[in-house]
Protein backbone atom coordinates (compact mmCIF):
# COMPACT_ATOMS: atom_id res chain seq x y z
CA UNK A 1 0.00 0.00 0.00
CA UNK A 2 1.28 3.41 -0.83
CA UNK A 3 2.12 5.48 2.16
CA UNK A 4 1.86 9.22 2.23
CA UNK A 5 4.78 10.79 0.50
CA UNK A 6 5.42 14.47 0.61
CA UNK A 7 5.46 16.31 -2.66
CA UNK A 8 8.42 18.44 -1.70
CA UNK A 9 10.84 19.04 -4.52
CA UNK A 10 14.09 17.15 -4.60
CA UNK A 11 12.46 14.03 -3.31
CA UNK A 12 13.90 10.77 -4.52
CA UNK A 13 12.00 8.95 -7.21
CA UNK A 14 11.95 5.22 -6.75
CA UNK A 15 11.47 2.41 -9.18
CA UNK A 16 10.65 -0.40 -6.80
CA UNK A 17 11.78 -3.98 -6.82
CA UNK A 18 8.87 -5.37 -8.78
CA UNK A 19 8.90 -2.55 -11.28
CA UNK A 20 9.96 -2.82 -14.87
CA UNK A 21 10.29 0.18 -17.16
CA UNK A 22 10.66 -0.07 -20.89
CA UNK A 23 11.34 3.46 -21.88
CA UNK A 24 13.16 6.56 -20.86
CA UNK A 25 13.35 8.34 -17.59
CA UNK A 26 14.57 11.88 -17.18
CA UNK A 27 14.36 14.68 -14.66
CA UNK A 28 15.84 17.05 -12.12
CA UNK A 29 15.62 14.87 -9.06
CA UNK A 30 17.28 11.81 -7.63
CA UNK A 31 16.36 8.29 -8.61
CA UNK A 32 16.71 4.99 -6.84
CA UNK A 33 16.32 1.95 -9.03
CA UNK A 34 15.47 -1.40 -7.46
CA UNK A 35 13.72 -2.87 -10.48
CA UNK A 36 14.67 -3.05 -14.13
CA UNK A 37 14.92 -0.38 -16.80
CA UNK A 38 15.52 -0.86 -20.47
CA UNK A 39 15.78 2.65 -21.77
CA UNK A 40 17.98 5.64 -21.22
CA UNK A 41 18.22 7.39 -17.89
CA UNK A 42 19.11 11.10 -17.80
CA UNK A 43 19.00 12.83 -14.44
CA UNK A 44 20.27 16.06 -12.99
CA UNK A 45 20.33 14.39 -9.59
CA UNK A 46 21.89 11.31 -8.10
CA UNK A 47 21.26 7.82 -9.37
CA UNK A 48 21.46 4.74 -7.17
CA UNK A 49 21.19 1.32 -8.75
CA UNK A 50 20.50 -1.16 -5.99
CA UNK A 51 21.66 -4.74 -5.80
CA UNK A 52 19.32 -6.81 -7.94
CA UNK A 53 18.39 -3.85 -10.10
CA UNK A 54 19.23 -3.87 -13.79
CA UNK A 55 19.55 -1.11 -16.31
CA UNK A 56 20.08 -1.91 -19.96
CA UNK A 57 20.78 1.48 -21.47
CA UNK A 58 23.00 4.49 -21.17
CA UNK A 59 22.87 6.36 -17.92
CA UNK A 60 23.58 10.02 -17.20
CA UNK A 61 23.39 11.67 -13.81
CA UNK A 62 25.17 13.99 -11.41
CA UNK A 63 26.53 11.01 -9.58
CA UNK A 64 26.02 7.28 -9.94
CA UNK A 65 26.30 4.50 -7.37
CA UNK A 66 26.03 0.99 -8.76
CA UNK A 67 25.35 -2.05 -6.64
CA UNK A 68 23.30 -3.83 -9.30
CA UNK A 69 23.90 -4.17 -13.02
CA UNK A 70 24.28 -1.64 -15.80
CA UNK A 71 24.75 -2.66 -19.39
CA UNK A 72 25.46 0.61 -21.10
CA UNK A 73 27.63 3.66 -20.75
CA UNK A 74 27.72 5.52 -17.46
CA UNK A 75 28.33 9.23 -17.43
CA UNK A 76 28.41 11.42 -14.34
CA UNK A 77 29.42 15.02 -13.81
CA UNK A 78 30.55 14.05 -10.31
CA UNK A 79 31.44 10.65 -8.91
CA UNK A 80 30.79 7.16 -10.20
CA UNK A 81 31.08 4.47 -7.54
CA UNK A 82 30.88 0.83 -8.53
CA UNK A 83 30.45 -1.36 -5.48
CA UNK A 84 31.49 -4.93 -4.89
CA UNK A 85 28.98 -7.29 -6.43
CA UNK A 86 27.96 -4.82 -9.13
CA UNK A 87 28.13 -5.73 -12.81
CA UNK A 88 28.98 -3.04 -15.31
CA UNK A 89 29.73 -3.27 -18.98
CA UNK A 90 30.22 -0.10 -20.93
CA UNK A 91 32.27 3.04 -20.83
CA UNK A 92 32.52 4.84 -17.51
CA UNK A 93 32.92 8.60 -17.36
CA UNK A 94 32.99 10.80 -14.29
CA UNK A 95 34.92 13.41 -12.37
CA UNK A 96 35.95 10.64 -10.03
CA UNK A 97 35.55 6.94 -10.60
CA UNK A 98 35.93 4.25 -8.00
CA UNK A 99 35.52 0.51 -8.33
CA UNK A 100 35.40 -1.85 -5.39
CA UNK A 101 37.16 -5.13 -5.77
CA UNK A 102 34.50 -7.75 -6.26
CA UNK A 103 32.70 -5.78 -8.93
CA UNK A 104 32.49 -7.27 -12.40
CA UNK A 105 33.54 -4.63 -14.86
CA UNK A 106 34.07 -4.78 -18.58
CA UNK A 107 34.50 -1.38 -20.00
CA UNK A 108 36.59 1.63 -20.55
CA UNK A 109 37.57 4.50 -18.33
CA UNK A 110 38.82 7.74 -19.85
CA UNK A 111 40.00 10.05 -17.14
CA UNK A 112 41.54 13.28 -18.33
CA UNK A 113 45.01 13.65 -16.85
CA UNK A 114 48.66 13.95 -17.77
CA UNK A 115 51.20 11.27 -17.16
CA UNK A 116 54.57 12.51 -15.95
CA UNK A 117 56.75 13.61 -18.90
CA UNK A 118 59.15 10.73 -18.20
CA UNK A 119 56.42 8.36 -19.31
CA UNK A 120 55.75 10.26 -22.49
CA UNK A 121 53.42 12.93 -21.19
CA UNK A 122 49.82 12.32 -21.92
CA UNK A 123 50.49 8.76 -22.94
CA UNK A 124 48.89 8.97 -26.37
CA UNK A 125 46.18 6.43 -26.10
CA UNK B 1 7.18 5.36 1.09
CA UNK B 2 5.59 3.63 -1.84
CA UNK B 3 7.58 1.00 -3.70
CA UNK B 4 7.66 3.09 -6.81
CA UNK B 5 7.55 6.86 -6.68
CA UNK B 6 7.81 9.05 -9.73
CA UNK B 7 8.54 12.28 -7.96
CA UNK B 8 8.05 15.82 -9.08
CA UNK B 9 10.56 16.83 -11.74
CA UNK B 10 10.88 13.30 -13.10
CA UNK B 11 9.57 12.33 -16.52
CA UNK B 12 9.08 8.77 -17.65
CA UNK B 13 8.38 7.92 -21.23
CA UNK B 14 7.59 4.32 -21.89
CA UNK B 15 5.91 1.34 -20.40
CA UNK B 16 6.03 0.84 -16.67
CA UNK B 17 4.91 -2.51 -15.31
CA UNK B 18 4.98 -3.44 -11.65
CA UNK B 19 3.60 -5.80 -9.03
CA UNK B 20 3.64 -3.04 -6.47
CA UNK B 21 1.99 0.26 -5.71
CA UNK B 22 2.95 3.40 -7.57
CA UNK B 23 2.77 7.05 -6.65
CA UNK B 24 3.09 9.57 -9.46
CA UNK B 25 3.94 13.17 -8.66
CA UNK B 26 5.84 13.86 -11.87
CA UNK B 27 5.16 13.08 -15.51
CA UNK B 28 4.43 9.74 -17.14
CA UNK B 29 3.86 9.20 -20.84
CA UNK B 30 3.19 5.77 -22.24
CA UNK B 31 1.59 2.99 -20.25
CA UNK B 32 1.36 1.93 -16.63
CA UNK B 33 0.38 -1.52 -15.45
CA UNK B 34 0.34 -2.24 -11.72
CA UNK B 35 -1.08 -5.15 -9.78
CA UNK B 36 -1.49 -2.81 -6.82
CA UNK B 37 -2.67 0.70 -6.06
CA UNK B 38 -1.78 3.65 -8.27
CA UNK B 39 -2.00 7.19 -6.97
CA UNK B 40 -1.76 10.12 -9.32
CA UNK B 41 -1.05 13.04 -7.01
CA UNK B 42 -1.92 16.69 -7.41
CA UNK B 43 0.44 18.26 -9.91
CA UNK B 44 1.16 14.99 -11.69
CA UNK B 45 0.71 14.80 -15.45
CA UNK B 46 -0.08 11.43 -16.93
CA UNK B 47 -0.55 10.79 -20.61
CA UNK B 48 -0.92 7.08 -20.44
CA UNK B 49 -3.31 4.21 -20.17
CA UNK B 50 -3.35 2.87 -16.66
CA UNK B 51 -4.22 -0.60 -15.45
CA UNK B 52 -4.24 -1.10 -11.69
CA UNK B 53 -6.14 -2.72 -8.86
CA UNK B 54 -7.25 0.69 -7.67
CA UNK B 55 -6.53 4.19 -8.83
CA UNK B 56 -6.89 7.55 -7.16
CA UNK B 57 -6.63 10.65 -9.29
CA UNK B 58 -5.62 13.97 -7.76
CA UNK B 59 -3.65 15.11 -10.78
CA UNK B 60 -4.26 15.04 -14.47
CA UNK B 61 -4.67 11.94 -16.61
CA UNK B 62 -5.17 11.71 -20.34
CA UNK B 63 -5.72 8.08 -21.18
CA UNK B 64 -7.95 5.13 -20.50
CA UNK B 65 -7.93 3.66 -17.03
CA UNK B 66 -8.85 0.18 -15.93
CA UNK B 67 -9.07 -0.87 -12.30
CA UNK B 68 -10.09 -4.29 -11.00
CA UNK B 69 -11.26 -2.67 -7.79
CA UNK B 70 -11.99 1.05 -7.89
CA UNK B 71 -11.24 4.44 -9.36
CA UNK B 72 -11.51 7.56 -7.21
CA UNK B 73 -11.45 10.99 -8.79
CA UNK B 74 -10.40 13.36 -6.04
CA UNK B 75 -11.17 17.07 -5.81
CA UNK B 76 -9.00 18.85 -8.35
CA UNK B 77 -8.39 15.60 -10.21
CA UNK B 78 -8.88 15.61 -13.95
CA UNK B 79 -9.42 12.60 -16.17
CA UNK B 80 -9.88 12.59 -19.92
CA UNK B 81 -10.43 9.05 -21.03
CA UNK B 82 -12.58 6.02 -20.46
CA UNK B 83 -12.94 4.33 -17.12
CA UNK B 84 -13.43 0.64 -16.65
CA UNK B 85 -13.77 -0.29 -13.01
CA UNK B 86 -15.93 -2.12 -10.51
CA UNK B 87 -16.51 1.09 -8.58
CA UNK B 88 -16.07 4.73 -9.43
CA UNK B 89 -16.30 7.80 -7.27
CA UNK B 90 -16.11 11.35 -8.57
CA UNK B 91 -15.57 13.99 -5.91
CA UNK B 92 -16.94 17.47 -6.04
CA UNK B 93 -14.39 19.57 -7.87
CA UNK B 94 -13.08 16.76 -10.02
CA UNK B 95 -13.37 16.92 -13.78
CA UNK B 96 -13.98 13.98 -16.05
CA UNK B 97 -14.62 13.46 -19.70
CA UNK B 98 -15.08 9.98 -21.04
CA UNK B 99 -17.14 6.83 -20.87
CA UNK B 100 -17.66 4.67 -17.85
CA UNK B 101 -17.89 0.91 -17.94
CA UNK B 102 -18.65 -0.54 -14.52
CA UNK B 103 -19.47 -3.98 -15.81
CA UNK B 104 -16.28 -5.69 -14.68
CA UNK C 1 58.23 -16.71 1.66
CA UNK C 2 59.75 -15.17 -1.38
CA UNK C 3 61.95 -12.15 -0.98
CA UNK C 4 60.83 -8.73 -1.98
CA UNK C 5 62.86 -7.08 -4.69
CA UNK C 6 62.89 -3.34 -4.28
CA UNK C 7 63.65 -0.94 -7.08
CA UNK C 8 64.58 2.07 -4.97
CA UNK C 9 63.72 5.64 -5.53
CA UNK C 10 66.95 6.61 -7.27
CA UNK C 11 67.01 3.63 -9.62
CA UNK C 12 66.22 3.74 -13.33
CA UNK C 13 65.88 0.24 -14.65
CA UNK C 14 65.56 -0.31 -18.36
CA UNK C 15 64.84 -3.94 -19.06
CA UNK C 16 62.66 -6.60 -17.69
CA UNK C 17 62.02 -7.98 -14.27
CA UNK C 18 61.04 -11.62 -14.03
CA UNK C 19 60.81 -14.10 -11.23
CA UNK C 20 58.83 -15.75 -8.48
CA UNK C 21 59.02 -13.21 -5.73
CA UNK C 22 57.40 -9.92 -4.92
CA UNK C 23 58.57 -6.64 -6.38
CA UNK C 24 58.24 -3.18 -5.06
CA UNK C 25 58.97 -0.36 -7.46
CA UNK C 26 59.69 3.06 -6.02
CA UNK C 27 61.94 4.27 -8.82
CA UNK C 28 61.71 4.17 -12.56
CA UNK C 29 61.28 1.09 -14.73
CA UNK C 30 61.05 0.80 -18.48
CA UNK C 31 60.50 -2.61 -20.01
CA UNK C 32 58.52 -5.54 -18.74
CA UNK C 33 57.62 -6.79 -15.33
CA UNK C 34 56.48 -10.38 -15.06
CA UNK C 35 56.55 -11.96 -11.65
CA UNK C 36 54.62 -14.68 -9.85
CA UNK C 37 54.19 -12.68 -6.67
CA UNK C 38 52.90 -9.26 -5.89
CA UNK C 39 53.98 -6.05 -7.54
CA UNK C 40 53.67 -2.78 -5.71
CA UNK C 41 54.21 0.40 -7.67
CA UNK C 42 54.78 3.02 -5.03
CA UNK C 43 54.00 6.68 -4.85
CA UNK C 44 56.35 8.61 -7.11
CA UNK C 45 57.31 5.52 -9.11
CA UNK C 46 57.40 5.82 -12.90
CA UNK C 47 56.73 2.63 -14.81
CA UNK C 48 56.63 2.30 -18.54
CA UNK C 49 56.00 -1.38 -18.86
CA UNK C 50 53.40 -4.07 -19.09
CA UNK C 51 53.14 -5.65 -15.69
CA UNK C 52 52.00 -9.21 -15.08
CA UNK C 53 51.78 -10.57 -11.55
CA UNK C 54 49.54 -12.38 -9.12
CA UNK C 55 48.48 -9.09 -7.63
CA UNK C 56 49.34 -5.53 -8.54
CA UNK C 57 48.92 -2.46 -6.39
CA UNK C 58 49.58 0.97 -7.87
CA UNK C 59 50.14 4.30 -6.18
CA UNK C 60 52.44 5.79 -8.80
CA UNK C 61 52.34 6.44 -12.54
CA UNK C 62 52.19 3.68 -15.14
CA UNK C 63 52.11 3.61 -18.92
CA UNK C 64 51.39 0.01 -19.78
CA UNK C 65 48.93 -2.82 -19.32
CA UNK C 66 48.46 -4.30 -15.88
CA UNK C 67 47.45 -7.94 -15.55
CA UNK C 68 47.00 -9.29 -12.04
CA UNK C 69 45.83 -12.87 -11.83
CA UNK C 70 44.18 -12.31 -8.46
CA UNK C 71 43.63 -8.63 -8.80
CA UNK C 72 44.76 -5.15 -9.71
CA UNK C 73 44.25 -2.27 -7.35
CA UNK C 74 44.75 1.41 -8.12
CA UNK C 75 45.13 3.43 -4.95
CA UNK C 76 44.60 7.13 -4.52
CA UNK C 77 47.20 9.06 -6.49
CA UNK C 78 47.71 6.31 -9.07
CA UNK C 79 47.84 7.46 -12.68
CA UNK C 80 47.60 4.72 -15.25
CA UNK C 81 47.35 4.75 -19.01
CA UNK C 82 46.78 1.16 -20.04
CA UNK C 83 44.40 -1.73 -19.69
CA UNK C 84 43.61 -3.49 -16.43
CA UNK C 85 42.85 -7.19 -16.25
CA UNK C 86 42.38 -9.40 -13.25
CA UNK C 87 39.99 -11.56 -11.28
CA UNK C 88 39.15 -8.51 -9.21
CA UNK C 89 39.84 -4.89 -10.00
CA UNK C 90 39.69 -2.12 -7.48
CA UNK C 91 39.99 1.57 -8.20
CA UNK C 92 40.08 3.93 -5.27
CA UNK C 93 38.65 7.40 -5.42
CA UNK C 94 41.40 9.71 -6.52
CA UNK C 95 43.03 7.15 -8.80
CA UNK C 96 43.10 8.08 -12.48
CA UNK C 97 42.85 5.65 -15.35
CA UNK C 98 42.68 5.84 -19.09
CA UNK C 99 42.12 2.36 -20.51
CA UNK C 100 39.95 -0.70 -20.52
CA UNK C 101 38.93 -2.56 -17.43
CA UNK C 102 38.13 -6.24 -17.55
CA UNK C 103 37.42 -8.35 -14.53
CA UNK C 104 37.18 -12.11 -14.68
CA UNK C 105 35.54 -14.35 -12.18
CA UNK C 106 37.68 -16.94 -10.41
CA UNK C 107 39.12 -19.48 -12.80
CA UNK C 108 38.25 -17.51 -15.87
CA UNK C 109 40.35 -14.64 -14.68
CA UNK C 110 43.14 -16.96 -13.78
CA UNK C 111 43.28 -18.57 -17.16
CA UNK C 112 43.20 -15.27 -18.85
CA UNK C 113 45.97 -13.94 -16.72
CA UNK C 114 48.07 -16.99 -17.35
CA UNK C 115 47.50 -17.05 -21.05
CA UNK C 116 48.39 -13.46 -21.46
CA UNK C 117 51.80 -12.82 -20.13
CA UNK C 118 53.31 -9.66 -21.41
CA UNK C 119 54.42 -11.24 -24.67
CA UNK C 120 53.20 -9.80 -27.93
CA UNK C 121 51.04 -7.38 -26.01
CA UNK C 122 53.63 -4.70 -26.32
CA UNK C 123 51.92 -1.55 -27.43
CA UNK C 124 53.54 0.71 -29.93
CA UNK C 125 54.52 3.28 -27.37
CA UNK C 126 57.05 1.03 -25.66
CA UNK C 127 60.15 1.58 -27.71
CA UNK C 128 62.46 -1.29 -28.39
CA UNK C 129 65.25 -1.35 -25.90
CA UNK C 130 68.35 0.51 -26.97
CA UNK C 131 70.58 0.33 -23.98
CA UNK C 132 71.92 -2.90 -22.61
CA UNK C 133 69.78 -4.00 -19.76
CA UNK C 134 70.61 -4.39 -16.15
CA UNK C 135 68.74 -7.58 -15.55
CA UNK C 136 69.91 -11.05 -16.25
CA UNK C 137 66.76 -12.37 -17.85
CA UNK C 138 66.67 -10.21 -20.90
CA UNK C 139 67.53 -12.60 -23.64
CA UNK C 140 64.37 -12.09 -25.62
CA UNK C 141 65.22 -9.21 -27.85
CA UNK C 142 62.82 -10.22 -30.59
CA UNK C 143 59.88 -10.07 -28.32
CA UNK C 144 59.61 -6.39 -27.83
CA UNK C 145 59.55 -5.57 -31.49
CA UNK C 146 56.39 -7.52 -32.01
CA UNK C 147 54.03 -5.54 -34.19
CA UNK C 148 51.80 -3.23 -32.22
CA UNK C 149 48.46 -4.78 -31.73
CA UNK C 150 45.33 -3.08 -32.74
CA UNK C 151 43.33 -2.03 -29.74
CA UNK C 152 40.07 -3.89 -29.54
CA UNK C 153 37.14 -1.94 -30.80
CA UNK C 154 35.00 -0.41 -28.08
CA UNK C 155 31.96 -2.47 -27.17
CA UNK C 156 29.05 -1.85 -29.47
CA UNK C 157 26.63 0.77 -28.19
CA UNK C 158 23.85 -0.69 -26.17
CA UNK C 159 20.60 -0.26 -27.95
CA UNK C 160 17.70 -1.10 -25.72
CA UNK C 161 15.62 -3.56 -27.58
CA UNK C 162 12.37 -2.08 -26.50
CA UNK C 163 13.11 1.56 -27.04
CA UNK C 164 11.57 1.56 -30.43
CA UNK C 165 8.41 -0.03 -29.19
CA UNK C 166 8.07 2.41 -26.35
CA UNK C 167 8.59 5.32 -28.70
CA UNK C 168 5.84 3.99 -30.83
CA UNK C 169 3.66 3.95 -27.78
CA UNK C 170 4.63 7.52 -27.12
CA UNK C 171 3.92 8.70 -30.58
CA UNK C 172 0.52 7.23 -30.32
CA UNK C 173 -0.09 8.93 -27.01
CA UNK C 174 1.36 12.36 -27.41
CA UNK C 175 -0.75 14.47 -29.64
Which secondary structure elements does this structure contain, and how are they paired or packed?
The complex is a heterotrimer of chains A (125), B (104) and C (175).
Chain A: E1 12-15, E2 19-27, E3 30-33, E4 36-38, E5 41-43, E6 46-49, E7 54-56, E8 59-61, E9 63-66, E10 69-71, E11 74-76, E12 79-82, E13 87-93, E14 96-99, E15 104-110
Parallel strand pairs in A: 1-3, 2-4, 2-5, 3-6, 4-7, 5-8, 6-9, 7-10, 8-11, 9-12, 10-13, 11-13, 12-14, 13-15
Chain B: E1 4-6, E2 10-18, E3 22-24, E4 27-34, E5 37-40, E6 45-57, E7 60-62, E8 65-73, E9 78-80, E10 83-90, E11 95-97, E12 100-101
Parallel strand pairs in B: 1-3, 2-4, 3-5, 4-6, 5-6, 6-7, 6-8, 7-9, 8-10, 9-11, 10-12
Chain C: E1 4-7, E2 12-19, E3 22-25, E4 28-35, E5 38-41, E6 46-58, E7 61-63, E8 66-74, E9 79-81, E10 84-91, E11 96-103, H1 106-115, H2 141-144, H3 163-173
Parallel strand pairs in C: 1-3, 2-4, 3-5, 4-6, 5-6, 6-7, 6-8, 7-9, 8-10, 9-11, 10-11
Question: In words, what does this structure look like?
Answer:
The complex is a heterotrimer of chains A (125), B (104) and C (175). Chain A contains no helices and 15 strands. Helices cover 0% and strands 52% of the residues of chain A. Chain B has one domain. Chain B is built from no helices and 12 strands. Chain B has strands spanning 4-6, 10-18, 22-24, 27-34, 37-40, 45-57, 60-62, 65-73, 78-80, 83-90, 95-97, 100-101. The model of chain B has no long low-confidence stretch (mean pLDDT 94). Chain C has 175 residues and is mainly beta. Chain C has one domain (4-170). Chain C has 3 helices and 11 strands, in the order βββββββββββααα. Residues 105-175 of chain C have low confidence and may be disordered. Chain A binds chain C through residues 22-24, 38-40, 56-58, 71-73, 79, 81, 89-92, 96-111, 113, 115-116, 118-120, 122-125, and chain C through 28, 46-48, 61-63, 71, 73, 79, 81-82, 88-103, 105, 125, 154-155, 157-158, 160-163, 165-166, 169-170. Strand 2 (19-27) of chain A pairs antiparallel with strand 2 of chain B.
Amino acid sequence: MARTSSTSQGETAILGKGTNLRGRIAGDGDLRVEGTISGDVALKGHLTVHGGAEITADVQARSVVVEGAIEGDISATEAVAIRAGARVSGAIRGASISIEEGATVNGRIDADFELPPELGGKGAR
Amino acid sequence: MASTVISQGITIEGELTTDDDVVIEGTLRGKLVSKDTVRVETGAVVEADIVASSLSVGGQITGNVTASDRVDLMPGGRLIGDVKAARLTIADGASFKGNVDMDV
Amino acid sequence: MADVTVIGQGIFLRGSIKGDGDVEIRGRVEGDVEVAGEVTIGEGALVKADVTARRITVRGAVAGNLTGEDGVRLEEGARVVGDLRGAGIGIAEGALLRGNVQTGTGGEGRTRARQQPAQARTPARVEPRKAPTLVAKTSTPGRKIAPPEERPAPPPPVVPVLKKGSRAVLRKRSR
